[in-house]
Amino acid sequence: MKLFRDVNKSLLRSLMIFLLLGIHVSFAEEKKSELYMFIQPVKLTAELEKDRQGIQQVMIQTVLTTRKFEIMLSQETKIQDLKIRLYELKSILTPSERPGFYHIEMELINPKIAKTVRSVNVQMVSSKRLLYAIRIMVLQIVFGEKYKEKIKLIDEFKDLPTPPESTSPGVPEVKPVAPLPANNPVNETSLLDGKKKSNTPSSEDVRPSNFAYKLGSYFQKQTIESSGQLKDVTSEMMNLNLELGIYWKYSETDQNPMIFNARYGQIISKNFEKSPSNWALSALYNKRMNKSYGFLGGLALENSSFVNYYAIASDIEVGTLKTLWAQLGIDSNIYYFKRKFYFSLNFFKSLLSQINFTGVSNSQVSSSGYEIFAGSRVFKNFHAGLRYSSYSTQIISSYKFSNSDDRISLGVYYPIGF
Predict the structure, then answer these.
(1) Pairwise CA distance, residues 79 & 86, whole Å
(2) Residue 101 DSSP SS3
(3) Tell me: the pLDDT tens digits for 16-39?
(4) Could you give phi then psi for residue 252, rounded to 5 degrees?
(5) Which long-range contacts (CB under 8 A, 24 or more apart) does 196-203 make?
(6) Nearest-CA neighbor of 177 among 187, 162, 163?
(7) Nearest 5°: phi and psi at 313?
(8) SS3 for 114?
């Protein structure tokens, strides 16, 4: 009987251990995330290098607390060979102009398709609240617009007190998530936000579109000083310009797009109704040096008009100037007062020019100019743009003839697919 009781106890003990292991495994499988994250080493300045371990630890703690991702500690395997859904968290800390304050950039990247899913930027963060700001930004990256509901998750960290709401670091709203093509069965943000997914193939198996677009409408004031042998004529006219920009990348990993622009303008000022429409076409290569700036180079073809007298006692005649430009420039993205601004500066030099003005149509034409553009988001996804350009044209003929063309335009544009 004693042997029988010992056997029963042994069997009961084994059964209990088996059941406990089964319960533990089932709970582990239930809580295990299907999303994995690799936290890239944070880019720090020399004065913050001593705090690297603490900053990296805070990021790992916050990611684990969200219970959205499993942490991957290394990436020795080629990304494309991984069978898991992996994301990378990239962070850059740079000092501001004011000592003791920093700018923080953070991106969540899908490395398999080289796509930024979410990005957050915070300016002028005090060194005393650096770790708290990083935690908030991680919540933004993971939860998007719902991050405020999740701030309680980081209350368990006691190494830094949570500052009151009035003194907490400024945290901007999360940038719009980079959209995937319409035929994509799964949206990245739906996946991150825990929404129900389709049973169709994974979004990683469908390549995103390599195209983006920009539509714009501008009012332009144009001042042309036409200097001829007979009389100098100054013309001021208003134009309504419509513009289309197309951005194309060779592949999903290519960071250097081709930019194709088309502009059509109609003069809306009185007394110039019969002047021909102006238009321009351009093809540029945008060599990105980093996220902040890049170089532009390419060709542009433009049709513009002017007026002058070609003979004594003649009426004012409208002339048309067609120019093939060589274009070189630089563009930059900067953040100021927590707002992103886009700037570009381009220089032009004529390669070929053709003029149809009476008396100088067969002359040699030489032109040069420059253009400055600045833009920023003003409402939802609508952006305001301000452009100033100046061109000088010299016509070498039997008598002196030249044009000075200054333009200033203000309008709105709407980017699609950026």
Answers:
(1) 8
(2) strand
(3) 444 444 444 333 433 444 788 888
(4) -70, -20
(5) 202/85
(6) 187
(7) 65, 15
(8) coil
Write out the two tokens for 119. Answer: 């990005």
> What's the whole-number mean pLDDT along residues 62-75?
79
- pLDDT computed for residue 176 by the predictor: 41
Q: 82 φ, ψ to 5°?
A: -70, 140
Identify the band that residue 296 occupies on the pLDDT scale cut at 50, 70 and 90: very high
Give the residue from 248, 249, 247, 258 showing the smallest Cα distance to 284: 258
Backbone φ, ψ for residue 44 (5° rounding): -125, 155
Q: Output the six-digit token pair for 71.
A: 């942490």
Is-contact 106 120, C-beta < 8 A?
A: yes
Token digits of residue 122: 């915070």
pLDDT digits (tens, 9 = 90+) for 186-209: 455 555 665 544 443 333 333 345
Residue 291, CB half-sphere, CA atoms under 13 Å: how many?
13
Q: What does the CA dihedral 344, 345, 351, 355 come to, rounded to 10 degrees? A: 90
Handedness of CA 370, 376, 379, 383 (dihedral sign): positive
Do 220 and 238 form a contact (C-beta atoms < 8 A)? yes
DSSP characters over 170-202: P-PPPPPPPPPPTT-SS-HHHHHTTPPPPSSPP
Mark 253-283 as b/e (b = at least 16 C-beta within 10 Å).
eeeebbbebebebebeeeebeebeebbbebe
Cβ–Cβ under 8 Å, residues 36 and 72: yes
Report the run of H or E that residue 270 belongs to, with start and end.
none
Q: Is the pLDDT of residue 154 over 80?
A: no
Structure tokens, 308: 């002058």
Residue type, 65: T
DSSP per-residue letters across 294-343: EEEEEEEEEEEEEEE--STTPPPEEEEEEEEEEEEEEEEEEEETTEEEEE
The pLDDT mean for the chain works out to: 76
Q: Is the pLDDT of residue 84 over 60?
A: yes
Measure the CA–CA gap between 141 and 204, rounded to whole angstroms. 19
Task: Count each helix (H run) and each strand (E run) in the chain, helices first.
Answer: 4, 15
Three-state DSSP class for 411?
strand
Tell me the pairing of strands 69-71 and 317-336. unpaired
Tell me the whole-structure pTM to 2 decimals: 0.54
pLDDT of 79 above 80 = no
Measured in whole angstroms, how far is the alpha carbon of residue 22 from the centre of its chain? 49
> Cα separation of 204 and 110, whole Å?
9
